[in-house]
Design brief:
Length: 203
Amino acid sequence: MGTEHFDATAADWDRDEQKVARAREVARAVAAAVPLTSRTRVLDYGAGTGLVTQALAGRIGPATLADSSHGMRDVIRDKITTGALPDVRLWDLDLEAQPPPDERFDLIVTSLVLHHIKALERVLSRFTQLLAPGGYLCIADLDREDGTFHPHDFDGHHGFDRAELTTQLKDAGLGDVSVRDCTEYVRDGVTYSVFLAVARRPA
């Protein structure tokens, strides 16, 4: 997953009101879908500037923010320093290329990241490995679209078919899979629907 675009846009990322609002919608959907407590250990994978974790603040325990973009990690470091992201640690992690660390989480959340991942089966399997027994995976991403969301030189996924993703999550060893409407993303006057897929590692 190339990081050049994200490195270049990280400093201005939070100035986009739509991105901030979407992160809040994702956090709201996650909080409605899975039980959260002050002891819930969270991995925010492909965290960007940490907007989803910020929106979950006060409802979760310690959070680990992982992103392969150094620009995004720089913004997260600044937020940690200023206290905008309390009880947070930062990882440089790309699960397509790196094996999962020997850690376990109660919740993994990822927002508009999966469609960038080519080795989808590998990453979903590694998410399963990172979950504690009974832990939840929450994926917010695009429904299947016509390729206009990323119009130039994009070699990822043009969104996802919900039934196909459900099968892929089950094949990765997860159960209790459900997919629901989450939010929308408007780009160049076109509205794209965003789902929340929820799955659980068997206890």
